[in-house]
Predict the 3D structure of the following.
Amino acid sequence: MGSSSSSLNKIPNAQELMQETGFSAAHLLRLYERFEWLDRDNRGNLSPEDFEALGGLAMNPIGGRIICAFFSPGQDTMDFPSFVRILAHFRPTDRHRNKGGTQQELPNSRNRKLKFAFQLYDMDRDGKISREELLQVLRAMLGLQVTEEQLQSIAERAIKEADLDKDDAISFEEFKKSLEKVNIEEKMSIGFLQ
Amino acid sequence: MHRCGYVHFWLLGSVMLICSVSSAPGEAVLTHQRSSLKPSEPSFRLNESEHAPGSNITGIPIVTFKWHHVETPYLVTVWILVPFLGKMVIEANHHVTNFIPESALLICFGFILGGIIWGADKVQTFSLTPTTFFYYLLPPVIIDAGYHMPNKLFFTNLGAILVHAIIGTCWNAATLGLSLWGCQIGGAMGDLNIGLLQYLLFGSLMAAVDPVAVLAVFEQVHVNDVLFIMVFGESLLNDGVTVVLFNVFDAFVSLGGPRINAAEIVKGIVSFFVVAFGGSLVGVAFGIIISLLTRCTKKVQIIEPGFVFIFGYLSYLTADMLSLSAILSTTFYGVFCQKYVYANMDENSAHTVKYAMKVFANGAETIIFVFLGISAIDKAIWVWNTGFILLTVLFVLVYRFIGVFLLTWILNRHRLVPVELVEQVIMSYGGLRGAVAYGLAVMLDEKRIQEKNLMIGTTLIVVYFTVILQGITMKPLVMWLKVKRAAATELMLLEKVTNKMFNHTLVAIEDISGQIGDNYMRNKWKDFEKKWMTWALMKPSARKKQDRVFDVFHQLNLKDALEYVAEGERGGSLEFIRNESASLDFKKKFEDEYSEIMAYMSVNNGAVSRDPIPSVSLEMHEQTMKAMREAEEVNAHHLLDQHLYKSRKQHRHRFSRSHFDINTDEKEVQEIFQRTMRNRLESFKSAKMGVTPPKTITKHTKKEQQHKMPSGQSMGKMNKSFSGYEAGIENLAFMPDLDPTGSMQIPPWLLASELDSSMVAPSPRAQASLPRTPTNLRRLAPHFSTASFMLENILDTQQSDSDEPLPPPRNDGSM
């Protein structure tokens, strides 16, 4: 498409982004348009308030966490490359990619997807999911149906199941191990982000 | 084998019975004069009631042989019995069933039976009639399939399933009919008189993949979920197409070639939509009825299960009456109502439904296969036409492969997880034909279709080819191609929680990136369903606990409880009541000890054969969980209620109904309390009399691991207090890593939340081990206030303790 290549010029570092994340030009363009739409004040970057404009996100039990996951710790603005990089996590895993081809790990590899999920739990980024953090997630998702003591018991039990080194918290390795049977590629992918 | 000997005996005996019976038609009453019999059997005199009018009675018959009274029910029952016996014999030989699927063996058994009957009668008196098949044998199988359908998997892949069912079946029918007709024109079949329309009709009845056969063969192969659901779903949903095609071409054949014009063809297409959607709607309507009904059947729990079957059957018959697709109707009935019925019904009723359904479905399937075998031995249908038969078999196979590959290639471009090549091979190979095709073939009108017998014979040969040959080779093929098998999923809480989180995450990401995708729609549907449908169709009490994570948690706890009790019983009549310090840790430490228990429990499972879990970990296999849940939870609950603590009433949802009524329970628990309490009192008093200061219970210091008490009412002051798992066995007394000196835990079963009298009952060992330092002086024993466990209150109670050694249990909620 002739127009797309000129529109791509609007996006800084388009080629690098495409290579880094694996998005096609069409997708990148679409994401850029979305970025601009979210960016109400046309600042060129997004802040958490822009996300709050999305109604559905407000109703999402873990909406707040996801928004936080978009922003690196300490910053409260996000530019387009970061936006794309986070979304790249949700690309379906390419099955036919030759393994030796890429130098760096693609954002949508299983490991990176798991890392993203891990960070949704681990808000303080200390590398471990403590009981309190797990409890917060549980409370957010189940709080309406399950009482507080039960939540605590569930958190307790979940940690006990996964915690192999008995430090009363779940590290990334333990997290990975407990999810090894889960088809992460399917569960953490969105179809259109091809 | 010893056991089998008797079975063979019975088998032959029953077959002989059938033969003798069937060779004595038309005999009315055989009266025997048995004066030698004891005259003191007046009951037999009642048999003498009906004699053929006009027969001469020379004396009063004491016993009469009234065959004609019981002929029909007797025959029916014997004909149910014989296949069951056959199945029993077959299942006893596992080394054979590993290679040859049971369905194939049942067909062979049918051959033998058919041969015997043929030998006795020279005519096939028994064969699978369409009426019997379509109205009595098929419905149970479909009801079972629908009710136990994995909904999530089904709807996720519904698009692919529908494409295969509709387009695939049409493709099969068209290509088969046309190719055969082409071959006839080419002269490959000799001198046959079959027109194009008849070929198309034949093609349409041969095209349908059969659910019974698919179930029977895939059951033993255990391919992965997605593959199974695609083939099985297709086999169920293609009935809509088959019915339409068959009826349309049947009508065309009657109308004759010249009368077919565009209008008729359009009508045919329209009828497809009507049949398919109409059938599904009928099913959903009945599903709504049964869901609403189970909301109100609390008082008739004993026959509650019956309703499910009745309405399932009614949905089948109603759809058939309206000439809609009966299989679709019953399938969607089951798919729709499973969730609500399961939630609304009492746990026992739910079990009953599940097991009864399995009995009927399995039984019907067995009978179907045996009769398929018997029906072969019928000289009338032994019309041989090499070309026709061989070409049919060939085309059926080839076009199935082509169809599946084509469609999957198109579908894969739109699927998130594409279907791999080997899976496509298995999908094609798994397109088995079965009794539905045979039933339809027998329903052909021989006046219009002269070669009906040839068609029936060919159909049977194709069925045998697919079920026997393809069935036998399916397992080796699957293993050779290294198809992904069904993963034994273990149940882990973290996994479930993270799954839930993934769902939410995906919805959020879709929101952020501004696209309306699958997850968004699914979320919307879930919200709608939760808001309206669950509200309407589910009992309020059942509505509360609909969360899967909690479900998993609860099941895990129940399972722990069961193991715990089993271990306790092994140790000698539930020692842990007397000796709470019996430290049982459910971690992997105690692997060896518990492997026995796990073996014991896997023996009980029966239904699922798997490797015994080597460690009693908190993970378990989801496959067995389902079987376990049904089989064991009643046991678990019995044991729990009898000997352990009481779980909270408001969370006593479907897994915790007990067989005893509430009052008895309370008495029992109270009795255990009082017994234990008395023991403690003895020791307390004797200790008090002596010089030793009263031993006390120190509250377990607040750590991260706070277990809350399951008592609901006394939560007011209890936020820092000692806690135990809700419905769980694990409690701090049994955790060796806790500081024994600093803590004394109340075993949760000694707490009755209802009675909320909390017993402090330290074991003798614990008492001995508590250090008797002044700072640790706490009060021991019967203080019925749970508040005693609060650090701040300890000092207060210390004074009042000595004054009231034995306060009566206070049953009010203020503690």
Remarks:
- Chain B touches chain A through 56 residues (CB under 8 Å).
- The mean pLDDT of chain B is 71.
- Residues 760 and 781 of chain B are 5 Å apart (CA to CA).
